[in-house]
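Something for you to look into today, if you have time. Could you write out one complete protein record for me, on any chain you like? Leave the record below and I will have a look.
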Amino acid sequence: MPEPLPVDRQPLAAGWWPAARPVASPNHGPRPDGAAVTLLVLHSISLPPGVYGGDEIERLFTNTLDWAAHPYFEQIRGAQVSAHFVIRRGGEVLQFVSCDRRAWHAGQSAWRGRANCNDFSIGIEFEGLEGTAFEPAQYAALGPLVAALAAAYPLVDVAGHEHVAPGRKHDPGAAFDWTLAEETVRSQGVKLHWPPPLSLEMQQPHG
């Protein structure tokens, strides 16, 4: 018998990647009929901002965050959001929503003339803070993940939240190494269209 495929090379099952740790979020819905998944949207997140390693992201995406546990949480009280994946600082990948479903990650957004990016995209969050460097293990984890996704969906483009919602969002931020991310994905044999650099004005936080 042939050797079984490594877990990160196994195909998705009902939109779930076997190499990710599943943490099911209730925050999702159906994609529009006929909506092909062609876009990856990369984000950054940390809760509280700049604090890593806790379970607050999982609690946010599963609607179980204690809003009173930190003053920052009052700013996001009641938020019901999700992404398909989170890549932790050490490279662990968590999955919250089947890629066959519409996660709630991009908000008001548009890409290449199409509005509502949630309809046709997969959202990947890097644990981190915009403006600060991400870890080599996170870029390394991105490669096999995107390879698995590209084998299952007709992906064409990669963009940041800052690209699909310019002026409103600024993540993953100026410290995200887009060149390394692209090289890591290309090393897996996957060729996608990557975003051009943002103008300096678009990278500045507003208000």
In short: Residues 136-152 form the longest helix (17 residues).
